[in-house]
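Board notes (copied after class):
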Amino acid sequence: MAVNIDRDGDIAIVTVDNPPVNALGQALRQGLWDAVEGLDADASVRAVVLICAGRTFIAGADVTEFGKPPMPPHLPDLVGRLEQTAKPWVAAIHGSALGGGFEVAMGCRFRVALDSALVGLPEVTLGIVPGASGTVRTPRLAGVEAAVDLVTTGKPVKAAKALALGLVDKVVTGELRAEAVTFAHDALTRTLPQPISARPVTSPDPAWWDAQRQAIAKRAKGEVAPLRALDCLRMAAEKPFAEAMAFERATFLDLRASDQAAALRHIFFAERAAPRPAHLADAKPRGVRSAAVIGGGTMGAGIAAALRDAGLPVTLIERDAEAVKRGLLNLRNIFDAAVKRGKLTEAEAQARVKDVCAGSDYSLLAETDLVIEAVFEDLAVKRAVFARLGQTCRPDAILATNTSYLDPRLIAEGLPNPDRFIGLHFFSPANVMKLLEIVPTPATSPATLATGFALARSLGKIPVQSGICDGFIGNRILTRYRAEAEMLVRQGTPIAAIDAAMRGYGFAMGPFEAQDLGGLDIAYLQREAARSAGQDVPEALCDILVRAGRKGQKTGAGWYDYAPGDREPTPSETVVALLANRLTPGPSLSAEDIAGRLTAAMVAEGKAILAEGIALRASDIDLVEVHGYGYPRWRGGPMFEAERMASQRSV
């Protein structure tokens, strides 16, 4: 049974038990409807506590119903029925009350939450708006300003903030059921508050709404749902409840069938599947209770910070005392920045650094479970590191390289017990970026590979397995993308127009702005190394710029000019002059044409990667591009979008 009922005196306890997250499938909706009917008719019941078994309150909709016609009782009707009960209901929230789960809680007369609970309305992250009164009841419960922030961002809030906003009536510690029953008894001694639908709401003036629309449009970068949610919230603030409910429902149904919702569902399901791939179902990961990082530069410090954030003790190894000092400073700077952003307290930041053991002696690694190398991208340097690790570490210690382009097989050549070696390609900043490319060699054991995925889960990363090739999945596509962007420049398209087109497409930055931020010299040095090794690497336009001293923002000049202390790019006459004899002006292209050329190049490379078996699934490529390279999430990734467009053309 999804819904069970028992008693605590004159308080009925309705327990939802629908593992794993008490999702609001049809059977649960029907069970709750029947419980309302039955308890309303029971004269011995004075109040009802709604509580959930397992690790969470109702966490939202049943994802298995996504894309399917809804079955009655429909959620808006259930929430409305809860609000009309003859006896007051108290939602007792633990874990997460999200989306439809929080709408059910708002249908109850009261909400009591454990101090560890979260509540929220994340529907916009799936390309829709709340469809069961989330945009209509929330302004009446917490005010318009709080509702706009909650609904248009989709970000949940912790119990303490929910209490301050008025979203819950009490935050408790200890045993939730007992606390909720006590709250229900106390509530019966006082005048009951109005149902939320009957509470007044005051709308801000039109200028406030206009300012919100501008801010949300800038943040959304082409995503539709947040702006449609704002429309619903304004309707809720200015119109009667029933009219606002009808508008919300119509908006929900319209968006549910949209391309953006389909794209966001695609990414959602790909993310759910990524941490536990089916081909590793029988592989048991090794335990990782301690970790080490070789190299304390930007990448190494970021990896160490990610490991510390996950609660692992970390050993940081550098080549000498001075480098150790710099590495620790890099690490402290990361945690200091987190304190400034309000992500950590000062005490938490100090604790993160305190549990880092740093030095230059590899003997510190003798008992470490996992060692991640993050030194300079040079094969000889990396091989020297692994030669020392092979002599120092336990035979069963997992040894990983963070290489971005080099062949892991060459790095591990001669390593004892090569079955414990693996590539773990983090993205910078490693403590922030969610993507982790996991690159096994032919010798990597299933247990080692499974350990890589288990590590990603513990770090909160999205893991994607990649085969071995130049740049793996992400950087290989990036190389093709940048080459196509340079081809557009060679054909006379202005650099600024290309960047503007990709921003308009939904990227945070265009390809040339992004190169200036990261540094043009990084890819240049990789090409120079390949040329030195005898490879035939064609000259890129940015090679010309680097040789002229233009390495990006760090030198104040790259594809663009930058004023001292200013990151705002200014089109450069110097660049035009440097590249003049490489350009052959062609026809003028629209922003749509430019974006189409660049995304088509990404798709073509993605198809080649799939054909070669470098990526296991098209959805893996989409995850790499969304989480590693800023591809607009609401477009679903290049492979999904190409398939969608092809299917639409065939209709």
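Comment from the instructor: Residues 3-257 form a domain with the 2-enoyl-CoA Hydratase; Chain A, domain 1 fold (CATH 3.90.226.10). Residues 591-611 form the longest helix (21 residues).
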